[in-house]
Design goal:
Six copies of one chain form a homohexamer.
Chain A: E1 14-18, E2 26-32, E3 35-44, E4 58-65, H1 77-80, H2 85-100, H3 104-107, E5 111-120, H4 125-146, E6 159-167, E7 170-173, H5 177-180, E8 185-192, E9 197-204, H6 211-236
Parallel strand pairs in A: 4-5
Antiparallel strand pairs in A: 1-2, 2-3, 3-5, 6-7, 6-8, 8-9
Helix pairs in contact in A: 2-4, 4-6
């Protein structure tokens, strides 16, 4: 019934390949089916002005899509002269979600910037970015711990994200692009490995939904997050 | 226990004054406690290119804050040369939420733009903007119906929004600014008058939450929306 | 003969309501007929680089129009990505005019920013902004004097502004929008309460005028300023 | 008593050299003392959208300063990414002033763009730009008349501009930079050859002035305009 | 003697992997040592206005670097609000170089956009982009020919690029980043497979060079281009 | 055979007039036929951050065209809100070329900014800008040496530039606009007075060229540079 032939509660194939670029303090290519996102982590000693001297760390994120990551070519944002509303919204979400899983005291007064660049898009890019973003954040932190610059692990519980939606009247896990463009209701669910919620964004375009439906999607999301966290732990050796 | 002395499930005073500017097709000043937002509706015959010729209507929104609507002066966005990320995120939410409650076939091929400008801010400006935005949308539609340009009411169920959060460990309704700046978890809940969900955005900054806590906030939100819808109906004579 | 039925030398009704927002150090809504401008004053300890260390104070202004303050909706300048030429011209005029009436030594090394936002426009917004701007400047200074931070009053003579023009061949006081859009010659006259001139801007679009006509408009302007100053003094208790 | 040793009512030397660039439909270098402005006129068949089909012509102007036209180097506006407030204000003034002296019916539905670029600045650049701008406008119109595209002269009365101010307590004609930077009151006076007024902009920075002083400056300005118009007529053979 | 231990006339390892993204009409990852550039081709039916109706085709290019493709993180250009001077210069060069090798009549009135995004940088990114850009251009054209939309091959001679420079006093082929940052003279040589020149850009930073040295670098470049063209032909099966 | 009737190896008339503006530390108007560029040099004590404290000097350049320097009016870049790709490319070339001829140790830790503004364009503006740029750089340095601020001449060998191309199948020296717009191959050759090369940029638009042709153009360029250097030495009394 789903265009891909998947079961309602079936994720796409997940793979996370680390060490894909040599300069970054952490890097991976995360592939959720045909959605491919390159994530890198950069460690810097400076922090934003509003926490200078606080001893707390900061994690921030930026997001972009290569112009031809999509079916038809998108205008390059650097050319357009600004990041679009969707881009800004997504990168704020990535940063906020990852920060929720960080012990900023343990991280110490430094900033880690997570760059998420979509190489190929097929739905769910922001969820893939968060999931892959946590992996490269972890890799960067492991480097800091190995060097003795951080002594207590600030990342004890993974952060992962998955989208679910109501497609053709049925709750489905991990929407791909053909489903996403048809679904009247879809949500992004960001959770920790222990299934604590970090962010729920569930919206209807031109329709509405009930609390029951919301709970069905949350059940599916928990299942998806289990699979994603397993891949994260495998990739980081954690 | 709340800074304002309110009960955990107590809304601030709600008032909606209509007809506050003479040029707009609909206007109101919505006041939720000390949060004051001026909303106007503008009807135009043109629609965005992607629905031209479809017969469907469109509702869009823009949001702004006057520089001194806040405790300390904010930089004017027109001066800065662009709308910030938070502004873009909010105005997309307002437009999406209001569209979910509109029968776009009944509206017919025209666009209604909702402008929401914060005159004074004390927490919950986006929720006030959605709630007031629906009022001026309704007023504009009433004008179209009186003129016979629209014959079947495209707005049968009001759309309202309220924020709830976990403050000092307790679930509270309708966060004001002192609460909002301290709450580790807060959510915006957009619903129809019949309590169907349109959008849930619930996020944690530097912490996490459980599904139980989420359900407690949803219960509070339903209570708040009842009060807001009553004020909307009174203001529009609907 | 005037569209509004007013006498040639008759002002519209003037009202100034103070204390309209709780955060600003001074605030008012000035209404000149159907032109309504919200003015706020913000006191800051920093001054622009070019007077740092001089002991002198600074007054600056910004101006904006809400998108639907006008008959048809204007594009939001924050959206357009810059302030238009007219906006820039007006806010420079407001700042310059108010500074002319300030004893900058008495003010001391601090900056007061006057924000003037047009809620509803019906001609003469820049004059209303200057007149209301002086009121909130005065309120802010009164707060500084009460707190003992300023000891000698830097604002001894009010600053007010009115527009006059040649409409249908006749000199008229206080142009409203229907007159303004027809007048071949119009001027903005900024004066002190003692009728000293601060700025005269009198221009013809597609025509010219004589020195006699200029003097007739100046006579009318003096009459208008008397009424405005009375309202300013009443509003500030000065 | 004046830094330059000039009499109170003495203009600087005025020269207008035409035909200084080969591409423009009209060009001149106007020199008012050490202030040198290159003016060009460009004729185009298109007009702005708001007068399309009206049969009326349009005149518009742009203004710029070369980075090292001033004592210390100014930042290039193309580099800064926008025209500053002062630039915008000046080019709007030039366009408005020149249009006041044009019979737009006689000009016919075409646009003439006047570019005024300051090569060397020593005070009074906007007045030089208006005065030189009229010269190149006239040259362009003469070309149109010679070609038979315009049959009735739309420019019957020259437009010229001069600044006057109160320097060291005395009314002086044609302020140069050392005077301009010290003058508490200065004005720009734009008139026709027959001494009809087009625009008066007289402002005080940090002081005020009386109507008597205003009239003294107007008297001086009339004298200056006589000299400028003589130079304009000589340059255009009119 | 070279940091990498290569011979003076030794290229880095070249590999070109095609079909790396599913949406583009042509795609490849070109790797020249540690320099990795993702190239995609997009076919569109529209052409730029200046050749509309001419029957001629157009090829254009855009270039970008992922923020962490470099040793230390670069600011994202979409964030900065514009493409930097270096980016603009490079993408103009890529487009110009590829167009030189295209029979634009044979291509027909369509546009092919080549996007070159640097995934990892280690010197020579613009040359890799041109070399990989020709590969994806060829793949897109092969698709058009297979579909019968283009009948005569517009790409008969490959276009490839290599950098050479004078490093430690010696002419060397294919500079990597450590060499590039030290070389006083370096050049980019763009040629066809038959060794016709398309563009030579050879510049000295803080020094000069002789015609003899220029000829030595050209000799090296011809050798490098031979290797690159072999890889291009293998990748495209041409 | 050339549109201008010149011999294949004949330069246009070259003239360099110095001292054309009074504020700059060096200024000239360079005229290469109908191409006229105004060059100024500005000395500043500050240097870019990346060489602060190094004791080295810096030379940088900016380039602009007056809107009506060209046959049809170009849009003013300050109005467009950014410098176009061509402008950026040219000003980077000018700066790089001039720096190659400067002993930055002898110059000492100061910056000289060369502004090149095209007053009238007829092909070869970038070459004229470099040639005139060296003249004003020399004039500024002479002023520093006269004042004893620089003791050893940092400019011992002039830098000049000329364009050559293949026009109607023949190699020609110093392309004017009619030739430039037709030439399939053209190059810019920047050299010192002793004929050492600084930069060669030779590109084909829609065609290719051989090494022989390249050498023919280099021969012509050497001849042209001899004439330009003679004019530079005459203008600077060097």
């Amino acid at each position: 019934m789903r265009p891909s032939g998947r079961e309602l509660s079936e994720m796409r194939t997940v793979s996370i390949e680390t060490g894909v670029t040599k300069h970054a303090e952490g890097s991976c290519m995360i592939r959720i089916g045909d959605t491919h996102v390159l994530c890198t982590a950069t460690i810097e000693d400076r922090v934003p002005p509003f926490i200078k001297g606080s001893g707390l760390g900061w994690v921030t994120a930026e997001y972009g899509m290569l112009p031809r990551s999509t079916t038809s070519r998108m205008r390059r944002e650097a050319q357009a002269g600004k990041q679009g509303g969707r881009t800004v919204e997504i990168q704020r979400l990535i940063g906020r979600s990852l920060r929720a899983g960080v012990d900023r005291v343990a991280l110490g007064e430094r900033q880690i910037t997570i760059d998420c660049d979509v190489i190929q898009a097929d739905g769910g890019t922001r969820c893939a970015a968060i999931t892959g973003g946590w992996v490269v954040l972890k890799l960067a932190v492991q480097k800091l711990m190995k060097a003795g610059e951080v002594t207590s692990d600030p990342l004890t519980d993974p952060v992962a994200a998955v989208s679910c939606g109501i497609y053709a009247g049925q709750p489905v896990l991990d929407l791909d692009y053909p489903e996403d463009s048809e679904a009247g209701v879809d949500g992004n669910f960001i959770m920790t490995g222990s299934k604590r919620l970090i962010e729920v964004q569930m919206s209807a375009e031109g329709s509405t939904y009930s609390r029951d439906q919301m709970n069905q999607l949350l059940d599916l999301a928990e299942k998806g997050v289990d699979e994603l966290v397993a891949a994260q732990l495998a990739a980081t050796g954690a």
